[in-house]
Amino acid sequence: MAGHSKWANIKHRKGRQDAKRGKLFAKLIRAIEAAARQGGGDAAANPTLATAVQKAKDASVPKDNIERAIARGSGSEEGVVYDEVWYEGYAPGGVALYVQVLTDNRNRAAAAVRSVFTKNNGSLGEPGSVGYLFEQRGYLLARGDEDAVMMAALEGGADDVNPSDDLWEVVCAPGDLAAVRSALEEAEIPIEQSEVTQMPSVSVAVDEAGAGKVLRLVDALEDLDDVQSVYGNFDIPDEVLAAMG
After folding, report:
1. What does DSSP say about strands 123-124 and 227-232: parallel, antiparallel, or unpaired?
2. Across the chain, what does the average pLDDT equal?
């Protein structure tokens, strides 16, 4: 998912991802395995694993699949060792892209990512070229009454709550995501989305012509099996998204 500046952008990206449900499940399972291998299979003692498991549950990944992924990652069952690698680059129009990869073959992943950037008129940058533009944050989308959402989110430790159409964007420190989510759930506030993400410090406005080029590159990157997430600092106006259908 990219941007996070507006719910319309998120909804657009989420809809495109949901169309590839099988691929999405595979990526979520891979994230669970990697988190369990790095920090152990106890979600209560491994916040990264807890977040990965919750994200998989939100996407309706079957419980058995989640449990097997934890077992493989923690060494109870044989599994693949995944390395986390970040690639940085630019889409057309100067949009910064920050690409998270989980792979068992760094050479294959690097070649595939570079090829996608080149074929879609983007450019792969050096390490550090765009990463400084992004900050890891906890992020939730909640639906409900303003006062109720605001009170529960802030009591849970959220840093900021902003309106986004008929939803509320809740931002917090990555380590506070579980506490904020729990506070919202206790207040019986529906949660549309919950994840640890990379949020841009500055955004680049994109017109209709540019939006098509940017989203084609993002989609092509997301189609790669080794790519876990693609983050961007693009801001596509609601009317542009509507015009694109």
Report:
1. unpaired
2. 88
